[in-house]
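Hey everyone, long-time lurker, first post.

I ran two proteins through the pipeline my lab uses and got sequence/structure pairs for each. Pasting them in order. The first:
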Amino acid sequence: MNSQADLLKELRIDRKPGPPPSRRGLWIAIAAVVALLVVALAAWALFARDRGVEVRTAPVVASGGGAGTSVLDASGYVVARRMATVSAKITGRVREVLIEEGMEVEEGQVMATLDPVDADAQRSLTAAQLAAARTQVGNVQAQLTEAEANARRLAALVEQQLVSRSQYEQAVAQRDSLRAQLASAQRNVEVAGDQLKIADIGVDNTVVRAPFDGVVVAKAAQPGEIVSPLSAGGGFTRTGIGTVVDMDSLEIEVDVGEAYIGRVKPGMAVEATLNAYPDWKIPAEVIAIVPTADRGKATVKVRVALKEKDPRIVPDMGASVSFLEQARPEGEAQRRTLRVPAAAVVERDGDTVAFALAGEDRVERRVLQVAGGAGAQREVLSGLAPGDEVVLDPPADLADGDRIRIAPQ
């Protein structure tokens, strides 16, 4: 019985209240829920929100119709109209080179010398031949003086019939022969003198001089090398000492498309910009339009003169030029033009359009009327206003009202 009573007591439900819950666990649960909410919001902001397309923009520029308006843009290179690779007139071994790259030289300045041994020997021989010819003239002159005196004496005696006429005639013949020999000897002296001058030129040819004032841009030979005005092949013979450029003859050559060459006129004002110095605007003007076209590229070459001379301008530099509209006569109305980068103008559904910023993160599709233009700029007649910002290279799927993000500069 006692064992059954004990078993019944164990099955009885204990209705006493338990210990109160811990506050630390409650705060941990709340913090976990908040963290999950923060992560969810960040994920939504990162992935679910429409951030827009990243684009680059440029402003619409307004300008008057004066000489500062570009009607055509082109690119080209700085070239020198006066440049020479200086070489010796003869083949010889270089003895001394007196130039370095970047060195300024004057006309006639010695740039290098060749070994003069052969030229000096030839000159010495020619000088000796001239001296021998002059000695021969003196000898013949002495014989002629004696023969003339003898002929005069016999002429007096033959009149007195003291000598035969044959003796007189023989003396006259000898005199005339010596006169001819004297003329020949004198001519030999002149020839020997001319040969000496040629020998002097040969000696002078061993000295290489600058043909004009300029700057050395290349040094092509070293002492001990063989130089020749003609290439000997094999890579062991130099054909030049160095290259000299007249920096005052620098100009820009640009290739203009055939379709736009009608906008360019000789004497037209030009603004040039070197690729190395994009913030430096150099005033220039058109020298000439070369009267021939490149069939392969469909371009015409235009020569542009630089009005500023500066050591920073060197041959073969890349340059871009803007051909400026001619100034209008005083009193004529100036037409205000708008210009936008050509990269902002696209064709969509048969219309010429651009996408202008509407607010901070939206774009608006604008239908444009353009007047033309080539190169980096287009002239806009309607559809945009001064100060508008337009999207450069708009994506093909960009539409009116789309959200955009401006790319950092």
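...and the second, right after it:
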Amino acid sequence: MVQKASKADKKIAYDKKLCQHLDDYTQVLVVAADNVGSNQLQNIRRGLRGDSVVLMGKNTMMKRTVRLHSERTGNSAFLNLIPLLVGNVGLIFTKGDLKEVSEEVAKYKVGAPARVGLVAPIDVVVPPGNTGLDPSQTSFFQVLNIPTKINKGTVEIITPVELIKKGDKVGSSEAALLSKLGIRPFSYGLVVLSVYDNGSVFNPEVLDLTEDDLMGRFAAGVSMVTSLALAISYPTLAAAPHMFINGYKNVLAVAVATDYSFPLADKVKEYLKDPSKFAVAAAPVAAAASSSAPAAAKEEEKKEEPAEESDEEMGFGLFDD
């Protein structure tokens, strides 16, 4: 006869397993497991097998284990997990890419009926069309103010009707009608609530950021730092080039307005005294552009003109019969 393990033995085994996972993994997805059945959870475990482990348990037990393990190891980063263990949640320990694991978890959703008292996660709209129900079932539609008509001995819904709004509780009439129509409006699965990575905790939306998003936000941050540094005249690595340029402009303006000069200002003063030098400097560039344009046009004409075939090449002369 096989002796069943006691509750104390199960707690010890669970505590050991959780501590082992905390030591082996540095990445954890905290997921909500509301309305997720055991078979569905088993499929998720099977799909993540290899580089990820799903661990469920009571929040009080998980918090206690995390706290004691943090004290034993001296790693206070584990304590960041404790505030996340609220509600019906579980932990997915992984060594894989967090975004890929999160996407894999999202695949395992199962359709579910609208049960009485359940809070609707989405809006439920009943589409128009033939319901296949006999006229004796019209009372359901009348209670819910759904316009119908009798068509060929069956009830037909005339217009689409928003039956349940997101956040509302499902009533008995709505649940009965959806059941009769065979509509399973909701789908449930593990939902990632938070991400733990080497002691840092962040929102799962961060996983959807691309490199372009990161570069854009970094550039916006550098721009703000530069603007602030320039406004308060505080030198930073980002603002330094602009400060040097602005300083050069100021010194150049003083040199142009006075007799003071320096090598770089001499060239500017020379051009200001004789503006025709600007035209002389620009002329070679314009000339080069204008000379290259006709040459390119002629070359193009040569390519486009087909070679004319002579009469001799065709095998007869001008006066041949």
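Reply from user beta_strand_b:
Welcome! Quick read of the second one: Residues 211-260 form one domain. The radius of gyration is 38 Å.
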